[in-house]
Design brief:
Blueprint lengths: L3 H25 L3 H35 L6 H33 L8 H4 L14 E9 L8 E6 L5 E5 L6 H17 L5 E7 L19 E3 L5 H21 L5 H8 L6 E7 L7 H13 L5 E6 L9 E6 L5 E3 L3 E8 L5 H19 L21 E9 L2 E8 L5 E4 L6 H15 L5 E7 L22 E6 L5 H25 L4 H7 L7 E7 L10 H20 L1 E7 L13 H5 L2 E4 L21 E5 L8 E5 L9 H11 L6 E4 L10 H4 L5 E5 L6 E3 L10 E4 L3 H18 L5 E7 L5 H13 L3 E5 L15 E7 L5 H5 L9 H11 L5 E7 L2 H8 L9 E4 L4 H4 L17 E5 L7 E4 L4 H5 L2
Parallel strand pairs: 3-7, 3-8, 4-5, 4-6, 6-7, 13-17, 13-18, 14-15, 14-16, 15-21, 16-17, 24-28, 24-29, 25-26, 25-27, 27-28
Antiparallel strand pairs: 1-2, 1-10, 8-9, 9-10, 11-12, 18-19, 19-20, 22-23, 22-31, 29-30, 30-31
Helix pairs in contact: 1-2, 1-3, 2-3, 5-9, 6-8, 10-15, 11-12, 11-13, 17-18
Length: 903
């Protein structure tokens, strides 16, 4: 039997502990009514304590004076009995209040028998979460179990939970964790709570009864050797949630959900089973950072035998043996017994029911249509561009291009789904932003036509309204990539000048200052961009400088680069120039991709096909988001969206540049209304042809140089036929000279086409070529001399008594003809043969030239001091006019076949 002092001390301890319990209950109360009721009970309790204390103080003095008198023993018994009765009365009221509180502020299943809720699926929409979650029963030490009260711990949106097992025995701990997780999962609509399990000691995964949830993406079991990856995943999620909340004008996820009236982001509960040993310093710091910042972002930890600092919002349950524990909620003097464990069959049945409901609720696997908004073309690009790129456990993963992540690097080996990813990105952006908000410039350096479908075709006349330029098969036309970078640099300068004029610094401010002007965001996608830097030449140098400039300054002016490659290693042009990589803070890695993420970030190595790592943190591991990208490139996906947008959105067709296609002269805009001789299609962003300027001035003649017969004939025919359209029949006449029999059919076809236009045409195929005639037409006279060097022997021959040879007359024609409106277009097989024809001092008599298969080093002497960096390739030419060019233009000779056949 306890002595008087022991009984008195026990009563005082019990009062203190129950006061702590009630204070915890009061702190957990939400809502004015519950708080008022509990506050009233607390005041009544304190008054009772005060009365007991006063009585105790007065009577204890009396007892102290007379305690040695045995006759006073009945008096002491009466005093202690009254005090104990008062305590017992309060205890009934206090425990009742605690029971009411737990019932009111924990989910319904907490107070129901297991069989009533284990097979059910929750329907709570998750706008707010219950603060308290029941885990067992507590009672004051040395008191009978029937005097216990339900013990609940805070979790979602409020705190983390730490469980310390007894001497390494985890059976009771596993029971608490499994029961708690089942309560949480069964409370909310499936999908609103996502679980992550990590166990340092289980290769097969902890809590096996919950593993049916993995099939629905509600549970992820992490590699026990890769704790760093899990911590990085949680940290990245916290950053993303905070960024989204701040963007919406909120400070916490809870506030954002309350404002939206729905759960905008699922809760993440990470259960980490340790072995009691301290983590390494970096892991320990990262875990504590997650513990401090996680609750506001909906991330909560359940730590089993894992160290963490006490500065985090954390409740602790410590098992003293396999059956009993103490809790930081009630203090060390209150014993906790966990709720009875759920049978394995019941737990599996509950997890399966939740999984099946999630599958039904999701309805179908995520597809391309899920990337698109409900209403097309309603979003503004004032601040940024944002689109869903894929899904992580059913949740959308977004790609953002804006001030914080201005440019993107995409890497993935052949067959990894890179083209599909680009289509998913383009489809999502096009569905959200109309052409006045977004312009797309798309360039593919590899062989193929992956972007060609975004332009009108013979089978499908539709096009993507936001596309302004599409370049395909440009693997040999690096000049086109350089032209795109020049265009972006010019657009950047135009926007910078406007921003300076308005005294603003960012695109959003410029749009506010000039609302009447269209300032869309520009996205340039360059696939296999490393092809731009494949040579050690001027193109590489200029492209590197332009790309670096656009990457650095495009951030503030709404010009964004998406640079894609199979492997971005080994680009020598960027050695020592980190600006491009530094500005590409958005990194997207396909399976097995190398070098696109940070050096120590190996997440891409374990990716499955059709999955990507999306990282907005310059590739650092904590920024990883893994997304499954739906099929966006097969029939009935992107093409259906494009046709819908084409029908609903008014826009002009984009320009298509196909490097594998020789453009037709007949369909060229400059040929429809020519201003002069059209020579070829310029490889440039603008769809324009090279036109030679003709006026009555010295040197206004053209030389075609090279042995590529087909291309040379095409240039000559294009020039002749376009001149035929540029002038009326009574304004000019044509002479076509050719002494090479194999060319006669082509020259005759040109002559017949000009004659069909009504022009006077004289074709010479014999020795009369050497007889240069004077001007006979009141207008202009155009001489087309085919294979000049093939007639050299004829021209050099001088008959007896003749003052000038044919060569002398031809040189005189080149020198003096332009001033008299006589212009010559000649074709020579090389630079040396041209110089032989012109003679000493005759270089200035041919002011423009088109070179085919001639090396740039040979052309330098004809370029007025300019360095011609040119390596010949099939169906390409370089054009230089010393009166207009600072650098040569690269041309594609037109196909004149249709124009020759036109009647």
């Amino acid at each position: 039997m306890l002595g008087r002092r022991e009984r008195r001390q026990r009563a005082e301890n019990a009062l203190a502990r129950l006061r702590s319990v009630l204070n915890q209950a009061l702190g957990a109360a939400v809502g004015g009514h519950e708080r008022a009721v509990l506050h009233k009970r607390q005041l009544e309790f304190e008054r009772a304590v005060q009365r007991i204390g006063l009585a105790k103080a007065g009577r204890d003095r009396e007892i102290a004076e007379q305690l040695t008198d045995p006759a006073l023993a009945p008096v002491w018994e009466r005093i202690t009995r009254e005090r104990d009765d008062s305590y017992a009365e309060w205890r009934r009221d206090g425990l009742g209040a605690v029971r009411e509180l737990v019932a009111a502020h924990t989910p319904g299943p907490a107070g129901q028998p297991w069989q009533e809720w284990l097979g059910a699926v929750g329907t709570d929409p998750g706008v707010s979460a219950p603060r308290m979650w029941r885990i067992g029963t507590a009672h004051v030490e040395h008191e009978s179990p029937e005097h216990g009260f339900p013990l609940a711990v805070p979790l979602l949106e409020h705190a983390h939970l730490r469980l310390n097992s007894a001497r390494g025995d985890r059976a009771a701990v596993d029971s608490i964790v499994e029961t708690l997780l089942l309560r949480v999962l069964s409370t909310f609509t499936p999908g609103l709570v996502r679980l992550h399990l990590w166990d340092i000691g289980h290769l097969t995964g902890p809590l096996p009864n919950l593993h049916p949830l993995t099939a629905a993406g509600l549970l992820v079991v992490h590699d026990p050797t890769r704790l760093d990856d899990l911590l990085a995943l949680l940290a990245g999620h916290i950053r993303k949630v905070h960024a989204n909340a701040l963007r919406a004008g909120r400070t916490t996820l809870k506030d954002a959900c309350a404002a939206a009236g729905r759960r905008v982001e699922p809760w993440r509960v990470a259960v980490l089973f340790g072995n009691g040993e301290r983590l390494d310093e970096e892991q320990y710091r990262e875990l504590n950072r997650i513990a401090r910042t996680g609750p506001d972002a909906g991330v909560h930890l359940i730590l089993v035998d894992m160290p963490v600092s006490a500065s985090s919002p954390l409740e602790t349950v410590t098992f003293t043996d396999q059956e009993q524990a103490t809790s930081s909620v009630t203090g060390s003097g209150v014993v906790v017994r966990a709720d009875p464990p759920v049978s394995a069959a019941a737990a599996i049945r509950a997890a399966t029911a939740i999984r099946d409901d999630m599958v039904v609720r999701r309805g179908r696997p995520r597809s391309f249509i899920d990337l698109l908004p409900r209403v097309l073309g309603r979003e503004s690009s004032r601040e940024e561009l944002r689109t869903v790129i894929g899904f992580d456990e059913g949740d959308p993963v977004e790609l953002v291009l804006g001030d914080a992540t201005p440019h993107a690097l995409v890497a993935g080996p052949s067959g990894s789904g890179k083209t599909n990813l680009l289509y998913a990105m383009l489809g999502g952006l096009a569905a959200r932003y109309p052409p006045r908000e977004l312009e797309l410039y798309l360039l593919d350096f590899k062989e193929g036509v992956s972007f060609a479908g975004l332009t009108p075709g013979t089978k499908d006349p539709s096009w993507l309204p936001q596309a302004r330029l599409v370049g395909v098969n440009v693997n040999t036309d690096r000049e086109f990539g350089l032209a795109l970078l020049r265009y972006l640099s010019q657009e950047l300068a135009r926007r910078a000048e406007a921003a300076k004029r308005q005294e603003v610094t960012k695109l959003a401010e410029l749009r506010d200052a000039e609302p009447e002007v269209s300032w869309p965001r520009v996205v340039a996608v360059i696939d296999e961009f490393q092809a731009l830097f494949s040579g050690r030449d001027q193109i590489t140098q200029q492209a590197a400088a332009l790309l670096e400039d656009v990457a650095r300054r495009g951030r503030s002016q709404g010009i964004h680069l998406v640079l894609a490659s199979q492997d971005i290693a080994g680009i020598e042009a960027f050695w020592g120039k980190p600006a491009v990589y530094d500005q590409c803070t958005l990194r997207i890695a396909m399976p097995k991709a190398k070098r696109v993420l940070a050096q120590d970030n190996l997440a891409a190595n374990t990716l499955q096909r059709w999955h990507v790592v999306v990282n907005h943190e310059s590739g650092i591991a904590h920024g990883n988001e893994v997304a499954h990208v739906p099929d966006a490139s097969s029939r009935g996906t992107f093409d259906e969206l494009q046709r819908r947008l084409w029908r609903e959105v008014e826009s002009s067709a984009p320009r298509l540049f196909d490097g594998a296609h020789q453009p037709s002269l007949l369909t060229t805009a400059e040929f429809a209304t020519p201003r002069g001789p059209v020579l070829g299609q310029i490889i440039d962003v603008a769809d324009r042809a090279a036109v030679l300027r003709l006026e009555a001035a010295p040197g206004r003649n053209l030389a075609v140089l090279g042995t590529a017969v087909e291309d040379a004939l095409a240039v000559m025919a294009s020039a002749a036929l376009s001149l035929g359209r540029a002038y009326k029949p009574d304004e000019c006449e044509f002479e076509l000279w050719c002494h090479v029999e194999s060319l006669r059919d082509n020259v005759t076809a040109v002559a017949e086409a000009l004659a069909h236009q009504g022009h006077r045409v004289r074709a010479r195929f014999d020795s009369t070529i050497a007889d240069m005639t004077e001007q006979t037409c009141p207008g202009k006279r155009f001489v087309f001399f085919y294979a000049v060097d093939g007639a050299t022997q004829l021209l050099e021959h001088k008959e007896t008594g003749v003052v000038q040879s044919g060569l002398d007359k031809f040189r005189a024609l080149l020198k003096h003809g332009p001033a008299g409106n006589v212009h010559t277009f000649g074709w020579w097989r090389g630079v040396a043969r041209l110089k032989d024809t012109l003679g000493f001092g005759g270089n200035d008599d041919v002011g423009a030239w088109v070179a085919l298969d001639v090396q740039g080093s040979e052309l330098n002497q004809l370029a007025a001091g300019q360095l011609v960096d040119w390596s010949p390739r099939p169906h390409r030419a370089v054009f230089f006019d010393r009166t207009t060019h600072s650098r040569p233009d690269v041309l594609i000779p037109f196909d004149p076949t249709s124009a020759l056949e036109e009647r």
